[in-house]
Structure formats: C-alpha cells, structure tokens
Predict the structure.
Amino acid sequence: QVQLVQSGAEVKKPGASVRVSCKASGFTFGTYGFTWVRQAPGQGLEWMGWISAYSGNTNYAQNIQGRVTMTTDTSTSTVYMELRSLRSDDTAVYYCARVVTSGGNYFDPWGQGTLVTVSS
Amino acid sequence: DIQMIQSPSSLSASVGDRVTITCRASQTISNYLNWYQQKPGKAPNLLIYAASSLQSGVPSRFSGSGSGTDFTLTISSLQPEDFATYYCQQSYSTPRTFGQGTKLEIK
C-alpha cells in the first residue's frame, strides 16, 4: 500500500542539527514531490517546504530558509529534511507528505510524524 | 502570504448533528482548497481536495464547497469517530498555508 514511514524521535541541544528521513513505498517515487509540515506542541500546522523527487527542485518557507535542506535518494525512495541551528521553538512533530497534483494539489498520504525535541 | 481563517475555532456538537466549518482566504484561491482531519497523536488525513472532491475512502457524509475566497466543510450526520480537529489548506501559491484549525468536540 502507499505509505510513508519516518525515522524515530530525536532529542537535540540548541545549535545542533537534525535530519529526519521519510521512506516511501507502494508508488513510483520519482514521479512525485514531497512536502514537510511541522506542528509545535498544541499548535497548528506549518508548511516548511517542498522538494521534487524528479528534478530535485526545492521551495522553502521563508522563515526557515537558510537553516533547512530537503533532499531525496531515489535509490532508496527516501526523502530527507535537515534543520540546522536548532532553537527551542523548533520543538515539534515533523511530518512528511506526498504531494499529489492530479485533480488538484494536495498532501496524501502523510508519514506518521517524528518528534524533535530541542532542549539544553 | 495567503492567510486562511477558519471559523469557529472550536465547536461542540452531538452525534447525528449536521456541522459546517468555514474557511476564508485573504485573497482568491480559485478552488485550490483542501481539508484535513487530525486526531490526537496522529498525522493529518486528507478528506476533501480541490474544494469539493471527496478523497477515496472518505465517508460520503463529508462534503466541501466554495470557490474564490469562501469555503465550507460539512459533515451531514456526525459520527463518534468524527470528533477531531479539522484544517483547511490552500494550494494556490507558496508558501502553502493552513487555517488555524477547528476542534470539534462532543457535546
């Protein structure tokens, strides 16, 4: 079945970096784009950016541009999100999702989420 | 950036009720509007895309309408499993933006 499986929870100190992975299965990886969305504790959803698995093109949210890098590995059907110079307000659950562009433009399915905690 | 405003922010309703959640965009977004349901501790799940298209596998009691700047999500007869938080999201331009969420609670 179509699914995205993310890596496990991380605890990082302020100023460190974190890399979250998202492994896709059940569909042709290289024909889709992928997005990352984060959710701080008790808060709403925040779009972080997008990467095309076909071209490698990216588009990042302005508030994290310069600290984030999204990449793909087509040999393993995996998407990665690296966030650097972590701050306490980066503490959140990070979700990957496939971007579907047929009939619209929407996120489906989503990974199960990865909790990243930034604490000294 | 396009701002998405949902109303209400929270809503109490009973099983069997008809419920409507609205979403307003700060500028026209045609029909580039999606709705997601999120249950506690779970990832969001797509319900409606392109304003009114029901995602495969989603019960037909869910429906969406609207175009331009004003959109609605309607649940025709609430079921116990529908108590959750609902988010609208525009896919007209980047950055993609979400509404602040509507928490649907049991009365």
The mean pLDDT of chain B is 97. The first strand of chain B starts at residue 4 and ends at 7. The two ends of chain B are 36 Å apart (CA to CA).
